[in-house]
Every structure is written in structure tokens, then in C-alpha cells.
Amino acid sequence: MSKQVAPETNPAKEPVKPTAHFAGMHEQIARALSIAEFGVPAQVQTRSQRGVLIETGRDRLTLSTFDFQTAVSVTVPVETPVAKGYSLLDFAELKKALSATVAGETKKVAARTPVALAGDLLATEHIALPITTLDIHEFTHPPEATPAVVTVDAQHFLVQLNCVLRAAGRDDTLPALTGIQMTLEGEKLTMTATDRYRCAVAEVLTTPTVKTPEAPMTTHIPADVLGRLAKSLKSYEGPMGIGIVEGGVARTTLSMGDTTITMRSLEDRLPDLTALFPTECELSVQIDRATAVRAAKKCQALIKAKGENGAPVAFAWDGDKISLAPRIGTADDQARTKGMAIPSVNTHGSADVMRGRTLAFNPAFLLDALGTFTSDTLTLHLGRTVGPKPVLLTEGAEMAGTGYRHLLVPVRLAE
């Protein structure tokens, strides 16, 4: 009788012992964790993916996080052993525990408090406690960062990014409209966003890291990701590198010193919107921006006070004079409503083209558009066509703009 052999089984992987060791200042570790948090999944994933991978060695500490859409790597100089060490710790617990270790201290003392990690043991001179260790075998490592092909001034990039973010769509059933499309061409980065009712285009000058890209490179990043990024990096000053991979796993990396943030691209791209931007107009009107904002806020508040949410606000012309009023109530109510005067100057054409016409907009969209400009004045470029043909807003008198243009579709009013 033959002897029965038990089938082989795959032995379970041995848990990896946390071996990361470092010593640094509380302020620098807390700042690095706040940036790394950008890659921690907000939704429920495998528990290990909600961890932070800590790598140490050669007096450097690197924190890595990855939520399958965004990968973050932050490196800071600290004291470490020469040998490399690795620990995967629960991110939320580590961040809270790090803050708790300096509870009761002044802000100045807390910032200068020495902090050390030995495997999973977080310690200061006063207190120490172990942090929950996660299974590194279940952690999906992030893709490699893409080398920068150009650099931009970070603050100018963030200013222009915040302008176009307002025009991005929020409707998940139209995913192509929920992103910011970035195109590198020559020595210029162009950012575009639209939700069908408005369209914003901003330009940023770039400096090639080696040589100017030979062909245009395009990426399309979710607007919500870039919106959170803009808030996290608002205080960063210096150059920002941009690297783009179009094929395979399409992704974009923004690099700032020893920090890299790599984001997956949306699959769909925006259609060519060039034709939407007019190159000639019948009338260009320069208006005082601050007064227009005040007028739009008053009109919006009156619409709410009257309980007519969804009603538009309308520009009206009386010769060369312009006013803005809420479009609410009956025809008789509208005739009796007085709009707020807005200082204006015609820079091209004659106001006769607007005689007997009004130009109505969604008040929230109008305020968003006005808020994307920082100049004292801006220019409305109007065509002769009656109907919801987009109106172009620029900072200067030229229709080409000065690095930023905003298209706004008027509201069609009932005859």
C-alpha cells in the first residue's frame, strides 16, 4: 500500500519586522507627514494601504503614501543609522500620536522637540509608545516618479491653477469635464478647464530641464486632486518640476525639492476648445472689477431675499453707461428695478451694438469669473449675435489676454 503524501501548501509570509530608525525635530517630521497625507486613501482600502512607508538610511528619512491615484514621496534630512530600515505604520495613528507627544507644550517648544522612531516605537525625551505596524506585504508600492522635463515658478503656477479650477466640472457622469488639462508646448504650459457653461485657459512660462520638448505633451488631472494640492502647497516658494508620461500608465509628477507628487491622468481628454475663443468682437468694455463684484454680490443677495433662486443677473446699457441688476419678478417689477452703476470705458467699438439688449449671467458663475482676476479692471469682449454666445473676459484690452482668459456663457432670457 503506497504512502499518501500531503499536498504542499504555500507557507504564509513572515511578518516584516519594522526596522526604520531616525531622530529629528518635531516640526520637520510633522510637516513631512502633512504633505504625505495627500496620498493616504480617503475611502476604505486595504488597511495596509492606509499606512505610511517609512524608509531610513544615510541620514535621510523618506515617507511614501499611495492611494492608487496619487503617490507622494517626501524626503527630509534626519539622523539615521547607515543601514537602511523600513517600517509601515498606521498613518492616522502616527500623525495623532506625534501631535500628542507635545501636548501641553508651547508652539515654539513643540517645534523644537526632538523626536525619534525605533522600528515602531515613537519617542520624545518625556514619553514613548509603539505605533501600530501594518503588513508591508499587502502594501501596493507607488509607481516611480516621472523625471521633470520643465520647471515653473511654483507660486505663479498655483495662482494660474486656482483660476482654472473654478471652471472645472463637478458632474461625475461627464468625467472628461472634471479635470484640468495641461499641455506642454515649446516653453509654455497651458491649463484648460470647462464645465460647458464657462471655460478658463491659463498659461505659465516654463524652463526646460535639459532641452525644450520636441512635441507637445498633454495630461489631464482630476480637478479635485489639484484643488487639494493647491491648498497643501500654497506656502511653497521656489521652482516646481513637471514630468509627464502619456503612454502606458499615464501620469504626471510635480516635484518640489525632495518632495514628489505623482498623479494618474484621466483617460478622456477635453475636445479642442480653441474655436470657442473669439478673435474679433463688436464691442470691448473695460469695467471696474471691484465695483462689479460688489454689484454682483448685492444682486445675488437680493435674488435670495426674494426667494427666486436660479434667477440671473443682467448687465444693461444706457448709452455708454452700464449697470447690473437682478433679473427677478414680473416684467413690471423688472422695469422698476434699478441696477447698480459700474464704471466702464469702451476700448473698442460702439455701445450701440448693445442698445436695447441685456446681458444676463448666472450670478455665482459671474462672481467666480470676476474672482479669478486680480487687476483693478477687466475687459468684456462682446459680439453682435443675440443669444447665449460666450463672452470673453480678459485682464487687458487685448482679446489674447495676458496669460489668462475666461469664457462665460450668458443666460438666455425669455422673450
TrEMBL record:
Annotated ranges, domain DNA polymerase III beta sliding clamp central: 162-272
Keywords: Cytoplasm, DNA replication, DNA-binding, DNA-directed DNA polymerase, Nucleotidyltransferase, Transferase
SMART domains linked to this entry: POL3Bc
Subcellular location: Cytoplasm
InterPro entries registered for this protein in UniProt: DNA_clamp_sf, DNA_polIII_beta, DNA_polIII_beta_cen
Domain of life: Bacteria
Primary location: cytoplasm
Similarity-based family: Belongs to the beta sliding clamp family.
Record's protein name: DNA polymerase III beta sliding clamp central domain-containing protein
